[in-house]
Write a structure and sequence with these properties.
GO molecular function: adenosylhomocysteinase activity
Distance between the termini: 67 Å
Helix content: 40-55%
CATH architecture of the largest domain: 3-Layer(aba) Sandwich
Number of helices: 17
Family: Belongs to the adenosylhomocysteinase family.
Oligomer: single chain
Function: May play a key role in the regulation of the intracellular concentration of adenosylhomocysteine.
Number of strands: 15
Shape: globular
Catalytic activity: S-adenosyl-L-homocysteine + H2O = L-homocysteine + adenosine
CATH superfamily of the largest domain: Adenosylhomocysteinase-like
Pfam families: AdoHcyase, AdoHcyase_NAD
Number of domains: 2
Strand content: 15-25%
Radius of gyration: 22 Å
Length: 422
């Protein structure tokens, strides 16, 4: 395997450990294994230059291997400065011949330099987790637009950015919202985030969750998963929301719902999953319970107003690897995890491989969909084609050895008719 000439990783010597972890994750990703076997023969991405701005994890490595097997010429950079697993980045370069520009803990300047390096690859397809590649192309690299076939987007935050661009008429090539696939948000967002966010909180603090008051900010699919898992750990779960339907759902699911300013005074843990800015703000810090643990499970580190917390604090120390403890003038302590970045990757290992198997299978199939279209899609945010979503679900069920019923011809006719009734 030829080692790429250009890359930027922390330590090539970590590659052996990274390779072993990548292979471990591969055992839990049967749908991607099936796609690799199928498309390594057909090579639908042959000659396609693809740049991915994704969390550099074992699961992402297996997506990249699948895309390369399908013929793609792929380069990767990180979609978050604290989510890179340096051993995985080394293995991708040293053992799989995939150029990577990602170092855990990289500065903001280096982070964007890596994005530019991925765009120097002259991609015709982008694969984003947060829309940073698409945003950078539109702001700084318009020369790339003409040859773009399109992009894919992995996460809610990125889809929000892209839809804002499309609404303003600024989006200059099509993007498929992989995040909105049923096999993505029903499973990855709920079960993946639910497990990995709690994993990050527990690894960072080693504080018992049972019996504590645990507030979840936002009750979308990610918030639902976090609340469900916190309840399973024995926490008294509070949900805060701005949308009445979601708030009502949380009540019906058995959770207490109240304004965050009230919850802040009661909470031992507060985890954000809103996708919005400064949802935890100065007014909340001012009433927060002593020792409250703050964590963010959204993509960007803007959900908690960290500058406001810094301004309020009289002192700051780091008692544990992923914990910054801010002491306020009145002696109260507020404990921020992972510098406010997504706690499941910055303080743990991210989502379990089994759910990323579905998400990344959607990514791979959507990239092939963009590459094989005879006519370019409109310049807007597109949903994942239903047939792709259904294929991923079918393959996952088969891998789990689960069989389901099929409609009879009579039932199919009935569902498409209107004449027959009571």
């Amino acid at each position: 395997m030829a080692i790429p000439d250009k890359c930027d990783i922390a330590d090539p010597a970590l590659s052996g450990a990274g390779r072993r972890r990548i292979e471990w994750a591969w055992q839990e990703m049967p749908v991607l294994r099936e796609l690799m076997a199928r498309y390594s023969r057909e090579q639908p991405l042959k000659g396609i230059r693809l740049s991915g701005c994704l969390h550099i994890t074992t699961e992402t490595a297996n997506l990249a291997r699948t895309l390369k097997a399908a013929g793609a010429d792929i380069v990767l950079c990180a979609s978050n400065p604290l989510s890179t697993q340096d051993d995985v980045a080394a293995a991708l370069v040293e053992h799989y011949g995939i150029p990577v520009f990602a170092v855990r803990g990289e500065s903001t300047e280096r982070y964007y330099r890596h994005i530019d390096a991925a765009l120097d690859h002259q991609p015709v397809i982008t694969m984003d987790d947060g829309a940073d590649l698409v945003s950078r192309i539109h702001q700084s690299r318009p020369d790339l637009v003409e040859n773009m076939l399109g992009g894919t987007e992995e996460t809610t935050t990125g889809v929000i950015r892209l839809r804002a661009m499309a609404a303003e008429g600024a989006l200059r090539f099509p993007v498929i919202a992989v995040n909105d696939a049923m096999t993505k948000h029903l499973f990855d967002n709920r079960y993946g985030t639910g497990q990995s966010a709690l994993d990050g909180v527990i690894r960072a603090t080693n504080i018992l969750i049972a019996g504590k008051t645990f507030t979840v900010v936002g009750y979308g699919w990610c918030g639902r998963g976090i609340a469900m898992r916190a309840k399973g750990h024995g926490a008294n779960v509070v949900v805060t929301e701005v949308e009445p339907l979601r708030a009502l759902e949380a009540v019906m699911d058995g959770f207490r719902v109240m304004p965050l300013v009230e919850a802040a005074a009661l909470s031992d843990f507060i985890v954000t999953a809103s996708g919005d800015k400064h949802v935890v703000d100065k007014i909340h810090f001012e009433v927060m319970k002593d020792g409250c643990v703050l964590a963010n499970s959204g993509h960007f580190n803007v959900e908690i107003n960290i500058p406001a917390l810094e301004a309020l604090a009289a002192d700051k120390q780091r008692p544990r690897k992923s914990v910054d403890e801010y002491r306020l003038p009145d002696g109260r302590r507020i404990r921020l995890l992972a510098e406010g970045r997504l706690v499941n990757l910055a303080a743990a290992e991210g989502h379990p491989s089994a759910v990323m198997d579905m998400s990344f299978s959607n990514q791979a199939l959507c990239a092939m969909h963009l590459a094989t279209q005879t006519q370019r899609l409109d310049n807007r945010v597109h949903g994942v084609p239903v047939e792709i979503d259904q294929e991923v679900a079918r393959l996952k069920l088969a891998a789990m050895n689960v069989q389901i019923d099929t409609l009879t011809s009579e039932q199919t006719r009935y569902l498409s008719s209107w004449q027959e009734g009571t």
